[in-house]
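Could you show me some protein's one-letter sequence and the numbers that encode its backbone in two labelled lines?

___
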Amino acid sequence: MARTKIPVGLPRQNPTKSYWQTPPLPVADHRTTPTLPTRTKYAIIGSGITGTSVAYKLLQEEPNAAIVILEARQASSGATGRNGGHCRAGRYLDFKNYLEEFGREDALKLEVLEEHNVANIGNLIRTLGIECDLRDVETLDVFTDPVKWEAALEALAARKEVLHGNVDTAILTKHRVWSAKETREQLLIPDGVGAISFPAYALSPYKLVCALLEICIKKGLNLQTNTPVVEVSQHPTHGPTKEWIVHTERGTLKAEKVILATNAYTAALYPPAVHWIIPTRAQVAAIRPGSNIADNPALKRTMILESPISGEYMQSRAEGFSGAGDIIIGKISFFQGYYHPLTCFEVADVDSEQMASNPC
Protein backbone atom coordinates (compact mmCIF):
# COMPACT_ATOMS: atom_id res chain seq x y z
CA MET A 1 0.00 0.00 0.00
CA ALA A 2 1.31 3.45 -0.91
CA ARG A 3 0.14 6.97 -0.26
CA THR A 4 -0.79 9.02 -3.27
CA LYS A 5 0.60 12.42 -4.10
CA ILE A 6 -0.30 15.57 -2.20
CA PRO A 7 -2.11 17.75 -3.19
CA VAL A 8 -4.95 15.43 -4.10
CA GLY A 9 -6.30 15.65 -7.61
CA LEU A 10 -9.65 14.79 -9.16
CA PRO A 11 -10.59 11.28 -10.33
CA ARG A 12 -8.77 10.09 -13.42
CA GLN A 13 -10.97 9.50 -16.43
CA ASN A 14 -9.35 6.20 -17.42
CA PRO A 15 -8.92 4.18 -14.21
CA THR A 16 -7.75 0.59 -14.04
CA LYS A 17 -10.45 -1.98 -14.65
CA SER A 18 -11.80 -3.45 -11.43
CA TYR A 19 -12.23 -7.20 -10.92
CA TRP A 20 -15.50 -6.49 -9.10
CA GLN A 21 -16.91 -4.34 -11.93
CA THR A 22 -16.34 -6.86 -14.71
CA PRO A 23 -18.71 -6.53 -16.44
CA PRO A 24 -20.16 -3.14 -15.41
CA LEU A 25 -23.84 -3.15 -14.45
CA PRO A 26 -26.55 -1.41 -16.55
CA VAL A 27 -26.68 1.64 -14.25
CA ALA A 28 -22.96 2.29 -14.79
CA ASP A 29 -23.40 5.14 -17.29
CA HIS A 30 -26.91 6.21 -16.31
CA ARG A 31 -28.09 9.78 -16.64
CA THR A 32 -31.63 10.28 -15.39
CA THR A 33 -32.02 13.41 -17.49
CA PRO A 34 -30.05 14.20 -20.65
CA THR A 35 -29.04 17.60 -19.32
CA LEU A 36 -27.81 18.58 -15.88
CA PRO A 37 -30.53 20.06 -13.63
CA THR A 38 -29.99 23.69 -12.73
CA ARG A 39 -31.24 23.50 -9.14
CA THR A 40 -31.79 20.89 -6.42
CA LYS A 41 -32.23 20.66 -2.68
CA TYR A 42 -29.49 18.08 -2.14
CA ALA A 43 -26.43 17.66 -4.33
CA ILE A 44 -24.48 14.52 -3.43
CA ILE A 45 -21.03 14.21 -4.97
CA GLY A 46 -20.04 10.57 -5.26
CA SER A 47 -22.16 7.50 -5.97
CA GLY A 48 -20.42 4.95 -3.76
CA ILE A 49 -21.85 3.38 -0.63
CA THR A 50 -21.79 6.64 1.32
CA GLY A 51 -23.44 8.87 -1.27
CA THR A 52 -26.00 6.26 -2.25
CA SER A 53 -26.85 5.42 1.37
CA VAL A 54 -27.38 9.11 2.12
CA ALA A 55 -29.71 9.42 -0.88
CA TYR A 56 -31.63 6.30 0.15
CA LYS A 57 -32.11 7.56 3.71
CA LEU A 58 -33.08 11.06 2.56
CA LEU A 59 -35.75 9.62 0.28
CA GLN A 60 -37.12 7.62 3.20
CA GLU A 61 -37.38 10.79 5.30
CA GLU A 62 -38.32 13.17 2.46
CA PRO A 63 -39.97 11.17 -0.35
CA ASN A 64 -40.41 14.25 -2.55
CA ALA A 65 -36.97 15.74 -2.00
CA ALA A 66 -35.02 16.83 -5.07
CA ILE A 67 -31.73 14.94 -4.96
CA VAL A 68 -28.98 14.83 -7.56
CA ILE A 69 -26.00 12.49 -7.36
CA LEU A 70 -23.02 13.60 -9.40
CA GLU A 71 -20.46 10.93 -10.23
CA ALA A 72 -17.17 11.70 -11.96
CA ARG A 73 -16.99 8.35 -13.70
CA GLN A 74 -19.23 5.29 -13.83
CA ALA A 75 -21.66 4.62 -11.00
CA SER A 76 -20.03 3.22 -7.86
CA SER A 77 -16.73 2.83 -9.68
CA GLY A 78 -14.43 4.19 -6.96
CA ALA A 79 -13.51 2.58 -3.65
CA THR A 80 -16.93 0.94 -3.23
CA GLY A 81 -16.70 -0.74 -6.60
CA ARG A 82 -13.24 -2.05 -5.69
CA ASN A 83 -14.08 -3.31 -2.21
CA GLY A 84 -13.76 -6.97 -1.24
CA GLY A 85 -17.12 -7.08 0.52
CA HIS A 86 -16.26 -8.17 4.05
CA CYS A 87 -19.23 -7.32 6.26
CA ARG A 88 -18.10 -8.13 9.78
CA ALA A 89 -18.07 -6.80 13.32
CA GLY A 90 -14.30 -6.65 13.63
CA ARG A 91 -13.82 -3.80 16.07
CA TYR A 92 -14.03 -6.11 19.09
CA LEU A 93 -10.23 -6.07 18.89
CA ASP A 94 -10.31 -2.48 20.11
CA PHE A 95 -12.79 -3.09 22.91
CA LYS A 96 -10.20 -2.87 25.68
CA ASN A 97 -8.90 0.40 24.24
CA TYR A 98 -12.42 1.79 23.99
CA LEU A 99 -13.06 0.72 27.56
CA GLU A 100 -10.02 2.56 28.83
CA GLU A 101 -10.60 5.66 26.73
CA PHE A 102 -14.38 6.08 26.86
CA GLY A 103 -15.60 4.02 29.82
CA ARG A 104 -17.99 1.07 30.09
CA GLU A 105 -21.16 2.76 28.88
CA ASP A 106 -19.74 4.17 25.65
CA ALA A 107 -17.66 1.06 24.96
CA LEU A 108 -20.87 -0.97 25.14
CA LYS A 109 -22.63 1.46 22.82
CA LEU A 110 -19.85 1.14 20.25
CA GLU A 111 -19.98 -2.64 20.43
CA VAL A 112 -23.76 -2.82 20.07
CA LEU A 113 -23.75 -0.21 17.28
CA GLU A 114 -21.43 -2.26 15.12
CA GLU A 115 -23.32 -5.48 15.84
CA HIS A 116 -26.58 -3.83 14.81
CA ASN A 117 -25.05 -2.33 11.67
CA VAL A 118 -23.83 -5.69 10.42
CA ALA A 119 -27.18 -7.33 11.12
CA ASN A 120 -29.05 -4.45 9.48
CA ILE A 121 -27.04 -4.76 6.27
CA GLY A 122 -28.09 -8.39 5.91
CA ASN A 123 -31.70 -7.55 6.76
CA LEU A 124 -31.80 -4.67 4.26
CA ILE A 125 -30.45 -6.81 1.43
CA ARG A 126 -32.91 -9.61 2.11
CA THR A 127 -35.88 -7.28 2.62
CA LEU A 128 -35.27 -5.46 -0.65
CA GLY A 129 -34.43 -8.68 -2.49
CA ILE A 130 -31.10 -7.34 -3.73
CA GLU A 131 -28.88 -9.76 -5.64
CA CYS A 132 -25.39 -8.87 -4.46
CA ASP A 133 -23.69 -12.22 -3.76
CA LEU A 134 -24.70 -12.10 -0.08
CA ARG A 135 -23.69 -15.18 1.86
CA ASP A 136 -23.19 -16.16 5.47
CA VAL A 137 -19.57 -16.98 6.22
CA GLU A 138 -17.26 -17.77 9.06
CA THR A 139 -14.63 -15.05 9.14
CA LEU A 140 -11.28 -15.06 10.93
CA ASP A 141 -8.75 -12.68 12.34
CA VAL A 142 -5.49 -14.58 12.00
CA PHE A 143 -2.41 -13.49 13.93
CA THR A 144 1.28 -13.98 13.20
CA ASP A 145 2.48 -11.44 15.77
CA PRO A 146 2.56 -12.71 19.41
CA VAL A 147 2.14 -9.16 20.75
CA LYS A 148 -0.99 -8.54 18.70
CA TRP A 149 -2.28 -12.00 19.61
CA GLU A 150 -2.00 -11.34 23.33
CA ALA A 151 -3.71 -7.97 22.89
CA ALA A 152 -6.55 -9.68 21.02
CA LEU A 153 -7.06 -12.22 23.81
CA GLU A 154 -7.08 -9.42 26.38
CA ALA A 155 -9.69 -7.56 24.34
CA LEU A 156 -11.89 -10.65 24.17
CA ALA A 157 -11.59 -11.21 27.92
CA ALA A 158 -12.48 -7.58 28.68
CA ARG A 159 -15.43 -7.76 26.30
CA LYS A 160 -16.79 -10.91 27.91
CA GLU A 161 -16.49 -9.46 31.40
CA VAL A 162 -18.15 -6.14 30.59
CA LEU A 163 -20.90 -7.44 28.31
CA HIS A 164 -22.07 -10.16 30.68
CA GLY A 165 -25.46 -9.12 32.03
CA ASN A 166 -25.29 -5.62 30.57
CA VAL A 167 -26.81 -6.11 27.11
CA ASP A 168 -28.99 -8.62 25.33
CA THR A 169 -26.47 -11.32 24.51
CA ALA A 170 -28.69 -12.60 21.71
CA ILE A 171 -27.38 -9.83 19.47
CA LEU A 172 -23.73 -10.38 20.24
CA THR A 173 -21.26 -12.10 17.97
CA LYS A 174 -19.90 -15.34 19.40
CA HIS A 175 -16.16 -15.82 18.98
CA ARG A 176 -14.09 -18.98 18.72
CA VAL A 177 -10.40 -18.99 19.64
CA TRP A 178 -8.04 -21.13 17.54
CA SER A 179 -4.74 -22.37 18.95
CA ALA A 180 -1.42 -21.93 17.17
CA LYS A 181 -1.51 -25.60 16.14
CA GLU A 182 -5.00 -25.29 14.67
CA THR A 183 -4.09 -22.04 12.92
CA ARG A 184 -1.08 -23.61 11.23
CA GLU A 185 -2.55 -27.00 10.37
CA GLN A 186 -6.21 -26.26 9.68
CA LEU A 187 -6.07 -22.65 8.49
CA LEU A 188 -2.84 -23.15 6.53
CA ILE A 189 -0.98 -20.20 8.06
CA PRO A 190 2.52 -21.61 8.70
CA ASP A 191 3.64 -18.83 11.06
CA GLY A 192 0.26 -18.33 12.75
CA VAL A 193 0.18 -17.94 16.53
CA GLY A 194 -3.61 -18.02 16.85
CA ALA A 195 -6.88 -16.95 15.33
CA ILE A 196 -10.36 -15.77 16.29
CA SER A 197 -13.39 -16.66 14.19
CA PHE A 198 -16.98 -15.43 14.21
CA PRO A 199 -20.03 -15.28 11.89
CA ALA A 200 -20.18 -12.58 9.24
CA TYR A 201 -21.31 -11.82 5.70
CA ALA A 202 -19.54 -11.62 2.38
CA LEU A 203 -21.10 -9.68 -0.48
CA SER A 204 -20.46 -7.51 -3.51
CA PRO A 205 -20.59 -3.83 -2.45
CA TYR A 206 -20.63 -2.85 -6.14
CA LYS A 207 -23.77 -4.88 -6.85
CA LEU A 208 -25.40 -3.73 -3.62
CA VAL A 209 -24.87 -0.03 -4.31
CA CYS A 210 -25.88 -0.26 -7.96
CA ALA A 211 -29.12 -1.95 -6.87
CA LEU A 212 -29.74 0.77 -4.27
CA LEU A 213 -29.14 3.41 -6.94
CA GLU A 214 -31.77 1.81 -9.16
CA ILE A 215 -34.22 1.78 -6.25
CA CYS A 216 -33.50 5.44 -5.54
CA ILE A 217 -33.91 6.38 -9.21
CA LYS A 218 -37.39 4.85 -9.16
CA LYS A 219 -38.13 7.00 -6.10
CA GLY A 220 -37.08 10.21 -7.88
CA LEU A 221 -33.28 10.41 -7.58
CA ASN A 222 -31.50 12.09 -10.47
CA LEU A 223 -28.21 10.28 -11.13
CA GLN A 224 -25.67 11.95 -13.40
CA THR A 225 -22.66 9.73 -14.12
CA ASN A 226 -19.52 10.79 -16.01
CA THR A 227 -19.99 14.30 -14.63
CA PRO A 228 -16.85 15.40 -12.76
CA VAL A 229 -17.30 18.12 -10.17
CA VAL A 230 -14.39 20.55 -10.34
CA GLU A 231 -15.35 23.07 -7.65
CA VAL A 232 -17.93 23.80 -4.96
CA SER A 233 -18.46 27.45 -4.06
CA GLN A 234 -20.90 29.49 -2.03
CA HIS A 235 -23.42 31.67 -3.81
CA PRO A 236 -22.30 35.31 -3.48
CA THR A 237 -25.77 36.67 -2.69
CA HIS A 238 -26.77 37.36 0.89
CA GLY A 239 -29.99 36.24 2.51
CA PRO A 240 -31.57 33.86 5.01
CA THR A 241 -31.10 30.89 2.67
CA LYS A 242 -27.59 30.41 1.34
CA GLU A 243 -27.03 28.41 -1.81
CA TRP A 244 -24.08 26.49 -3.08
CA ILE A 245 -22.88 26.31 -6.65
CA VAL A 246 -21.55 22.97 -7.84
CA HIS A 247 -19.34 23.46 -10.88
CA THR A 248 -19.06 20.50 -13.25
CA GLU A 249 -17.66 19.94 -16.71
CA ARG A 250 -21.26 19.90 -17.97
CA GLY A 251 -22.44 23.12 -16.33
CA THR A 252 -23.37 24.35 -12.86
CA LEU A 253 -25.92 23.17 -10.33
CA LYS A 254 -27.32 25.27 -7.46
CA ALA A 255 -28.11 23.39 -4.27
CA GLU A 256 -29.34 24.13 -0.76
CA LYS A 257 -27.06 21.46 0.64
CA VAL A 258 -23.99 19.76 -0.77
CA ILE A 259 -22.77 16.42 0.55
CA LEU A 260 -19.25 15.31 -0.31
CA ALA A 261 -19.11 11.53 -0.45
CA THR A 262 -15.84 11.68 -2.30
CA ASN A 263 -13.52 9.55 -0.20
CA ALA A 264 -9.90 9.88 -1.34
CA TYR A 265 -10.74 12.85 -3.57
CA THR A 266 -12.36 14.95 -0.83
CA ALA A 267 -9.40 17.31 -0.45
CA ALA A 268 -9.62 18.27 -4.12
CA LEU A 269 -12.99 19.91 -3.38
CA TYR A 270 -12.41 20.73 0.28
CA PRO A 271 -8.66 21.45 0.70
CA PRO A 272 -8.53 21.35 4.55
CA ALA A 273 -9.33 17.63 4.36
CA VAL A 274 -5.80 17.00 3.08
CA HIS A 275 -4.63 17.00 6.71
CA TRP A 276 -6.82 14.07 7.78
CA ILE A 277 -7.92 12.21 4.64
CA ILE A 278 -4.84 10.70 3.08
CA PRO A 279 -5.48 8.62 -0.05
CA THR A 280 -3.73 5.30 -0.44
CA ARG A 281 -3.33 2.87 -3.28
CA ALA A 282 -3.39 -0.91 -2.96
CA GLN A 283 -3.76 -3.90 -5.23
CA VAL A 284 -5.95 -6.98 -5.22
CA ALA A 285 -5.12 -10.32 -6.81
CA ALA A 286 -7.64 -12.90 -8.03
CA ILE A 287 -6.02 -16.32 -8.36
CA ARG A 288 -7.12 -19.89 -8.92
CA PRO A 289 -5.90 -22.36 -6.27
CA GLY A 290 -4.09 -25.54 -7.23
CA SER A 291 -5.93 -28.84 -7.09
CA ASN A 292 -4.12 -29.83 -3.87
CA ILE A 293 -5.87 -27.15 -1.81
CA ALA A 294 -8.89 -26.11 -3.90
CA ASP A 295 -11.31 -28.05 -1.69
CA ASN A 296 -9.66 -27.27 1.64
CA PRO A 297 -12.25 -26.01 4.18
CA ALA A 298 -9.91 -23.14 5.12
CA LEU A 299 -10.60 -21.53 1.75
CA LYS A 300 -14.34 -21.45 2.41
CA ARG A 301 -13.83 -18.84 5.11
CA THR A 302 -12.86 -15.19 4.87
CA MET A 303 -9.73 -14.06 6.67
CA ILE A 304 -8.00 -10.92 7.86
CA LEU A 305 -4.30 -11.43 8.49
CA GLU A 306 -3.14 -9.37 11.47
CA SER A 307 0.60 -9.27 10.79
CA PRO A 308 3.20 -7.14 12.65
CA ILE A 309 3.28 -4.36 10.07
CA SER A 310 0.15 -4.54 7.94
CA GLY A 311 -3.04 -6.39 7.18
CA GLU A 312 -4.24 -8.43 4.23
CA TYR A 313 -7.51 -10.17 3.53
CA MET A 314 -8.47 -13.38 1.79
CA GLN A 315 -11.77 -14.72 0.60
CA SER A 316 -12.86 -17.31 -1.90
CA ARG A 317 -15.67 -16.81 -4.39
CA ALA A 318 -18.39 -19.37 -3.70
CA GLU A 319 -20.12 -21.60 -6.22
CA GLY A 320 -23.14 -19.94 -7.74
CA PHE A 321 -21.60 -16.46 -7.69
CA SER A 322 -19.50 -14.56 -10.21
CA GLY A 323 -15.86 -15.62 -10.18
CA ALA A 324 -16.68 -18.92 -8.48
CA GLY A 325 -13.47 -20.67 -7.41
CA ASP A 326 -11.30 -17.57 -7.38
CA ILE A 327 -9.30 -16.70 -4.28
CA ILE A 328 -9.12 -12.97 -3.67
CA ILE A 329 -6.11 -11.61 -1.81
CA GLY A 330 -6.13 -7.91 -1.07
CA LYS A 331 -4.91 -5.18 1.19
CA ILE A 332 -6.82 -3.73 4.11
CA SER A 333 -6.96 0.01 4.56
CA PHE A 334 -7.25 0.86 8.24
CA PHE A 335 -8.33 4.35 7.24
CA GLN A 336 -11.00 6.09 9.27
CA GLY A 337 -10.88 3.23 11.79
CA TYR A 338 -12.54 0.71 9.52
CA TYR A 339 -11.65 -1.65 6.72
CA HIS A 340 -13.37 0.42 4.06
CA PRO A 341 -12.90 4.20 4.05
CA LEU A 342 -16.31 5.82 3.97
CA THR A 343 -16.27 9.59 4.21
CA CYS A 344 -19.20 11.94 3.88
CA PHE A 345 -19.16 15.65 4.60
CA GLU A 346 -21.89 18.19 4.44
CA VAL A 347 -20.86 21.62 3.24
CA ALA A 348 -22.44 23.68 5.99
CA ASP A 349 -23.88 27.19 5.85
CA VAL A 350 -20.74 28.93 7.07
CA ASP A 351 -17.99 31.00 5.57
CA SER A 352 -16.46 29.13 2.64
CA GLU A 353 -13.01 29.44 4.17
CA GLN A 354 -14.19 27.64 7.29
CA MET A 355 -16.57 25.03 5.88
CA ALA A 356 -17.58 22.67 8.66
CA SER A 357 -17.46 18.94 8.20
CA ASN A 358 -20.10 16.65 9.54
CA PRO A 359 -19.07 12.98 9.36
CA CYS A 360 -22.01 10.71 8.68
Q: What stands out?
A: The CA atoms of residues 116 and 171 lie 8 Å apart. Residues 334-360 have pLDDT under 50 and may be disordered. DSSP finds seven helices and 17 strands in the chain. The helical segments are 49-61, 95-102, 104-128, 146-163, 180-185, 205-218, 266-269.
